[in-house]
Amino acid sequence: MDARELEKIKKLFQPEVIAVVGASKDPKKVGGSIVKNILANGFKGRVYAVNPTAREIMGVPSYPSLKDIPDKIDHVVVSVPADKVLDVIEEAGKLGVPVASIITAGFKETGRADLENKLVETARKYGLRILGPNIFGVVYTPANLNATFGPEKVLPGKIAFLTQSGALGIALMAWTAMEGIGLSSIVSLGNMSDLDMVDLGEFFAEDPNTRVITMYIEGIATGRGKSFIEVYKKITKKKPVIALKAGRSERGTKAIASHTGSLAGSDNVYEAAFKQAGILRANDVQELFDWAKALASLEKVDVKGEGFVILTNGGGIGVMATDASVFSGLPLLDMPEDLKAELRKHMPWFGSAANPVDLTGQAKAENYAGAFQALLKHPSVSGVVVLYCEVAFLDPVELAKSLIETHKQYNGAGKPVVVAMVGGERTREALKLLDANGIPSYPIPERAVKSIATVYRYSQYLSRNQ
Question: 203 and 335 share a domain?
Answer without folding.
Answer: no
